[in-house]
Amino acid sequence: MRSIATGEAFALMKKGVVYLDVRTEQEFEAGHPEGAWNLSVADPDFAVVAFACFDAAAPIIVGCRSGVRSVVAAEMLESEGFAEVYELRAGWDGARDAFGRVTEIGWRKTGLPCGSGPSPDRGSEALRARRAPAR
After folding, report:
1. By C-alpha distance, which of 60, 64, 54, 74 is closest to 127?
2. Which of 8, 62, 101, 132 lies at a CB distance of 3.0 to 4.6 Å from 4, suitable for a disulfide?
3. pTM of the entire structure?
4. Sign of the dihedral defined by the CA atoms of residues 8, 12, 13, 15, in that order
5. What is the dihedral of CA 78, 40, 71, 75, to 10 degrees?
6. Domain 2-130 class, CATH top level
7. Phi/psi of residue 107, each to 5°?
């Protein structure tokens, strides 16, 4: 896993790299990087669904609100065999120190393209529907 900044994540997305937002559906609907997929890392089938829906040989970016859940998700994906996992260290709202101060701005405040609202074709339900039988 490699930790990256928002600008690098955006550049990778422009090259076709998948961005997987691992926050809850409600958080995702409130705002997310444009073009992102959503699958909560809290989903008990997170790794199985991700493995079934995304190419483990291709690079993938994972992000959350502040960079905590995305580290967990990245480790899970690597343990499932994903070869090139990038973790968005500042997430959507920004990385914070132990006192809650923002140490690096997140995607939301960078001016990069954002989406909001339900995304039926890119959300958890769509991914679960695409999921292959358990391996």
Report:
1. 54
2. 8
3. 0.94
4. positive
5. -20
6. alpha beta
7. -50, -45
pLDDT digits (tens, 9 = 90+) for 94-106: 999 999 999 999 9
Q: Residue 83 and residue 66: Cα distance in Å, rounded?
A: 23
The residue whose two tokens read 């992102």 is: 36
Structure-block tokens of residue 6: 């928002």
pLDDT above 90 (res 69): yes
Query: Could you state, in order of their start, the residue ranges of all structural domains in the chain?
Result: 2-130
The yes-or-no answer on residue 64 being catalytic is yes
- DSSP class of residue 65 equals S
Catalytic hit among 13, 50, 64, 85: 64
- How do residues 1-42 score in pLDDT, each as one tens digit? 999 999 999 999 999 999 999 999 999 999 999 999 999 999
The answer to whether 116 touches 132, Cβ cutoff 8 Å, is no
